[in-house]
Each structure stands twice: as structure tokens, then as C-alpha cells.
Amino acid sequence: MLIDENGRIAEANAAAEEMLGRSAHRLVGTSLLDVLSIEEERVRDSLITADTQLIARGILVGTAQRDRRVNLTSSPLPSHPGWRVVTLSDVGQAETGDDDDERVELRAPAVLAHEIKNPLSAIRGASQLLARRVDARDKPLAKMISAEVDRIAQLIDRMQQLGSKPIVVSGPCNLHEAIRNAMATVRAGRGEGCELVEEFDPSLPPVAADAGALEQVLINLIANACDASAGLESPRVTVRTRFVSGLVFSAIRLGKATRLPIEITVTDAGPGIDPSLRDHVFEPFVSSKPHGQGLGLALVRKLLRDMGGRIAHERDERAGLTHFRINLPVAG
């Protein structure tokens, strides 16, 4: 919710409507504390102080529907003195304890995920409110912020599930749409400094893949290729698709061999990965970047394996090109 200098709700998104049990039309113009009952005096006083950054976890609040425990954040807007963005999110089971109200010990990754998701909620809420106020030319940018926040949140969830729950492929995926979405995301984050080239076979059928996971794979590979090309006079990354008719790749999926004839290749002309790391490039915590964490390609391989696909790295020293080749099954 967007709160004005008088503590009244100026904007509310769909999630706020659902949580507070009122439409945005009824919420706008109402004092925040009239629709949100907060027992803790310290939190209530901090919320009234507009210029104070507030993060409150697991507090009990009352709404028109029921009492509930939530995480609450209030973030001042420097450009508009007295205004702030307030976000509410339900506290999950892992944060409140089990059915016997016993405290649970959270593992470090879960704690980190929780700390990241709180500000993500604020960013997403602010972008939704921004989308209502900007002109038509800037609306796609506001929507992209919201979409990228959702993708980051999903990525955090997947990182927590590494080695456990696999992705369930629910239907066919438009391959070229996923690639173009990934390219648009990379362009938005990096500008036009690196040329992204499409070499698509328009006759290819849909693939059996999760669209969100495939886009995450492609964003990672294309962004890496742009990084590798950064020192070139004319940085260029080519994404090529084709049907591999002369070769048959197989992967064990659901106990049977699956043909993987759809190939995506991401190519750059950068210096390539250190030869000593090439055999380990898909392992966790292996990176040739000075400040790399070595998780990106490990996650790429995990996501593709979950979808029954494969990925390989190839360096063509004669041509000075690095290729990452993805092979996926045809849908159906």
C-alpha cells in the first residue's frame, strides 16, 4: 500500500484488497490504522512516524476478516517526504513453529531466503502501485520490475529445493517465446552494450519444459555470454535453435529413454572458461569470474535435468567461440 503524509492509504494493490477484505476503492482515503489493528504499541508508533524504516516480523494484526500473524515493512519514499510504502505478508509455518507451538531451528539458507523475500515484497508492491501512476510508455518497465521480482522469488524457492523436489513439467512450452523473454530481461538489465542475435528455426515444435525454469536457464547463459564478451570491440551473443536430425541424444526420464532433438546453442566470442575449470564448470561453487559464486551453471544443469534435458559446454579454439548447447525433448 502507498501511504500519504497524513497516514491515509493512497493506493492499494490486489494483494492488499485480499488481505484486508476491502476493495481498493474503499481503502483509498482511509487511515491505515483504521483498517489495520496492531496490538504492539512500539510497532504502531513506528508506523505513525513516516520517516522511520520499519521491519516487524510475526506481529499479530487484526483485519476486517480475521486476526493473523504477518511480516510488516514500512519504507519511506525520499522523493515524497512523509509518504511510504507499507507491505504485509503472511507468516509461514516455518517461521511460526509446528502445531505444538514449539520453536523450530531454521537452516541458514532458509533464514537467508526469508531475509531476501521481505524486501522483495516491498519492491513488488511498489512496482504494482507505480504501474498505475506512470504513463503508457513507462508501464512496461514497471511491469518488468514486478515480473523480475517474481522470478527472483521463484529462484530463491528453487535454490532451497536444490537436490530435493524436481520441477514438474505441466505442458508444452513455446521455445522461441521463452528465448525472447530471456533476451528482453538481459537487455533491460544491461542496455544495448551487447548485441543479441537470433538464429531461429521457425518450424520447431513446442518443447516439454517449464517456461519459467527455461527462461531462468537462458537468462543465466545469455548474461554469462555477455559478461564473457564485455572486453570485445563489438560484443555479440548468438542464440541458435535447430532440430538435430543426424544425432540422437537420450536422457533417462521416468524410467525410460527420451529423445532430445531440440537444440538451443548460446555462443559468444569471449576468451572462454579457464581450461582447468572446463570439466567442472557445472559443479557448485566453481566459477571463472573474479567475484562469481559458482551457483548459476549448477542451477542451470539442475533445472534442465529436472525437465529431462541436458546441457554441454564446448570451446572451439580455432574459431575463438564458446558454445553452451541445450537439448530438450519435444512436447507430447
UniProtKB/TrEMBL annotation:
Keyword Iron-sulfur: no
Substrates-to-products reaction catalysed: ATP + protein L-histidine = ADP + protein N-phospho-L-histidine
Any coiled-coil regions, as ranges: none
Swiss-Prot/TrEMBL GO biological process terms: regulation of DNA-templated transcription
GO MF, one example: ATP binding
PAS domain: residues covered: 1-40
Keywords: ATP-binding, Kinase, Nucleotide-binding, Phosphoprotein, Transferase, Two-component regulatory system
Enzymatic class: transferase
Organism superkingdom: Bacteria
PROSITE patterns cross-referenced by the UniProt entry: HIS_KIN (PS50109), PAS (PS50112)
The protein's name in its UniProt record: histidine kinase
Organism listed in the record: Erythrobacter mangrovi
